[in-house]
Structure formats: C-alpha cells, structure tokens
Amino acid sequence: MFSWAQLLADRVCALLPVAADSRLASAVNFFVFDFFKVLTLIVGISWVAALIRGAMPMHRIRAWLSHGRLRFLGYPAAALFGAVTPFCSCSSVPLTIGFLEAGIPLGVTMAFLITSPLVNEVVVAMFLASFGWKTAAAYATAGMALGIAGGLVVAAMKVERWLSPWMTEMRDQPCGCGSSGDTPPSRLALGDRLARAAGESLSITWKILPYLAVALLLGAFMHGYIPDDFFARFFRKGEWWSVPVATLIGFPLYASANATVPVIQTLVEKGVPMGTAMAFVMSAVGVSLPELLLLKRVMTVRLLTLFSVIVLIGTTIVGYLFNAMW
Questions:
Q1: What's the rounded Cα separation, in Å, for the pair 134 and 289?
Q2: Which of 4-18, 45-59, 201-215 is least confident?
Q3: Closest by Cα among 242, 243, 253 to 315
Q4: More confident: 220 or 63
Q5: What mean pLDDT comes out for the span 246-274?
Q6: Could you give the CA distance from residue 89 to residue 256 in angstroms, rounded to a whole number?
Q7: Helices (H) and strands (E) in the chain, counts
Q8: pLDDT tier at 304, thresholds 50, 70, 90
Q9: How far apart are CA 275 and CA 104, in angstroms?
C-alpha cells in the first residue's frame, strides 16, 4: 500500500554521501517512509471520518455508546476494530482524533488506541509461525484485554476534561462534525460535502504536522542509532525486577508490532524469559515518545500520563503472566 513511500525513502537515501547500511541512512529511510505514510493516513482518515460524520446521526451513536443499556459493548467492539487495523502507535493517532472529534466516548476511544498498535492479523500470524497457536492466542487475548481494561478505567475516572482545549471545542460543535458552518453536512450537495470534509482534513493535518515531524525525528534517531541487541544482556537471568525494568526501557522506543516478533524470538533465543521479552516489545509498541508527541495536540499532560501508566502497568502484568505460563 505504501510501496511508493518506501521507494521515495530509498531514493532519498541513495542521495546521501554515506553507505546504504549506515546508521544515518537507516534513520533517514525510517523518517521519510513513516512521515509520508502517517501524513497520508492523517489526511485520508480525517477526510473519510469527516464524510462519515456528516452522513451519520452522530448524536444517536454517541448516546448509544454513552448511555444505552448496551454501551459496554462499545469497548470490545473498539478493541476488535483496533485488532483488525494494521496501524503502529503513530498511525493509529489519526483515527483516534476522528473518534474524539465525532464525540465517541473517551473510554471507547482509548480501548481502540491501546489495542490498535498491539494486535493485528499479521502479528498474530507471525506469532503462530514462530511460537505456536497457544502463544499467538495468548498474545492477541492479552492485547485486546489490555485495551478493554484501559478503556474501562478511563471511563470510570471520567477524565474527558483532560482533553486539550482544541479537541474539547471540536467535540462541542453542535453538528458533531468539527465544522462551524451553519448548514448541517447531511443537507449539503455531494460536492459541498467533499469540499467541507477536505477542509476539515487539511485543518487537522496542519495543526498536528509539527508534532508529526518532531515525533518521527525522535523515532528515526532511535531506529537508526540503537542496536537491535542492545538490551538483551540486561534480561537474561530473569530476576523479578526484569519485567518492570524491561517495560520502562521499552517505553520511549518506537516500533511496529509486525517488526517485534523477530525481536522477541531473538531475545528468547539469547536466554531472555518469554514474559520479559514480551513486556519489553509490548511497551515499545503500545506507547512511545513519538506517539505521545502526536497525541499532545488532543490530550493534556494528565491524560497522556494516565494513558502511559495504563499501558505500562498492563504490559508489566502481561510480562509476569507470560513468565508464569512459559
């Protein structure tokens, strides 16, 4: 889907006066590819989300998810949707913004945000091939359970007030579509709907573009300059403290779930306990400094801290469980 972005990244790296396998080339390739990939997702998803908001009775959907008798089904539904969307932590941010802007409850949105980078069909298939069906099923279950639990915690704490002022203003728009126009989108002609949705998409993209650039610069540096086996020697013995330490070390890193299975396999082959390796990579996948920089546009520091703590505690628990099972 993004082969054109990879081709562009390869051509940019070919212009550098360094070897293709150097750390600088690896960092630049990562930045160019992810920048255009995430930028395309932001524009495209924001545009589609704006169209959907204009065509659907968002007030009814919000009421069903917030106050209906079946409202708790929204959490597993959001986690399941996150599990079938192959996004990394940064790529899931545009859809998260769309959910929040549409007025979807914060807890339900958080269930998607936590699950989306952790679980997808590709990573489950890779776990199946590398470790067998029990490990694959346990990983998928743990990822979705973490998302659902995190969403329920956020909902119980009622922390919608911790959204950023910009996002709060967007959610408070009468039409529920993030537009201040007087005419509801559902009453506009198709061409006007497309134009209004495009305007909303570009507005959102422009506001978070600086955060995207800074986040991916940080991610590119870590990708290019931190060796793959740097952490293996710290976790070989399997002391009780190795799981929370592995979680904390993985926290600032930025990785895609699809790239973590070989990392887990390598760590396990080097003697790192399965749960410790799992905690390390789930922490790196589930939350990262680049992702937090992107989310800073829509969440306050309090909410970002809560999100991070939920993921870190959850991945630590998963690590201990996997160590006990394997």
A1: 31
A2: 45-59
A3: 243
A4: 220
A5: 76
A6: 7
A7: 15, 0
A8: very high
A9: 34
Cα 288 from chain centre: 9
Cα gap 139→285, rounded to integer Å: 13
The domain ranges of the chain are: 3-325
- Positive or negative, the Cα torsion across 304, 307, 313, 316? negative
Q: Report H helices in 84-188.
A: 93-101, 106-118, 121-131, 133-157, 165-171
3-state helix, strand, coil in the chain (%, to 5): 75, 0, 25
Structure tokens at 307: 């999100």
Q: Which amino acid is at 17?
A: P
* Residue labelled with tokens 């890193």: 253
- Of residues 245, 239, 255, the one with CA closest to residue 288: 255
Residue found under tokens 């993004």: 2
pLDDT digits (tens, 9 = 90+) for 264-280: 777 777 778 888 888 88
Structure tokens at 125: 């298939």
How far apart are the C-alpha atoms of 58 and 6, rounded to whole Å? Answer: 37
Task: Compute how many other C-beta atoms are within 10 angstroms of the C-beta atom of residue 153.
Answer: 17
Rounded Cα–Cα distance for residues 313 and 308 (Å): 9
> Hey, what are 76's tokens?
């597993």
3-state DSSP call for residue 180? coil
